[in-house]
Amino acid sequence: HPSLWAGVIPISGRADRFCALYWQNAALLPFYVVMGEFDGSIVADNARDLDRYLNRAYNVTAVEYRGRGRDGFSDEILRIFDWMERFRRQAAPEEFLVRTARIWDNFFWYVEVQDFPPAVIIDPASWPPANPVPMQIRGRLTQANTLFVQAGGGRTTVRLSPDLVDFERRISLTVNGRQVDPREIRPDTETLLEDVRQSGDRQHPAWVNVVVGGKRPAATIRGNR
Predict the structure, then answer these.
(1) Do 202 and 178 belong to one domain?
(2) Which pTM does this prediction carry?
(3) Would 90 be classed as within a structural domain?
(4) Cα-Cα-Cα-Cα dihedral of 102, 104, 106, 110, to 10°?
(5) Can you tell me the mean pLDDT for 138-158?
């Protein structure tokens, strides 16, 4: 869930299971990884994903303590706090591409997806999957007050706020190839308050929820999370 955090700090963490499928989701988050040289096979186990991140110039700091095993690394705390001070959680990037294979991993920034295709769903209890094909979710925002969303689920909710669009101007929203009528996109106090209640996000609440596809009408305004 890269949209929920300003950064990620794994301490003595191990990259396994879904990390192999979700590693591209780390592109838009800074990482500060701390581990010990003698913590079993953790260095070797994490090498695959750290190589992926570093070879693609992701924002990753990797710290390995020589001669140390599994630890909380309290001597690294001040450096971690100094690193944290540089980052703030984004309302949303101008463009993102994420992958998901679990039905509860369905919310990324302003896009929420329901009704996953059965072929992409992976049950953690049935790991490893035979032929994993994660679903892709894309979002792109332009300076022309235009937003494009592409997702593979049966129902897609787009949460709009002043962080993303200017409600005083014409808004162009395209979801899975469908153009939403801009006259229907209007801020709503009830939606805003309900979104804060359900999400707990007081910094970037939704003012309008646009629901496209699924069992509801083609484009329904004021959906709830």
Answers:
(1) yes
(2) 0.86
(3) no
(4) -150
(5) 94
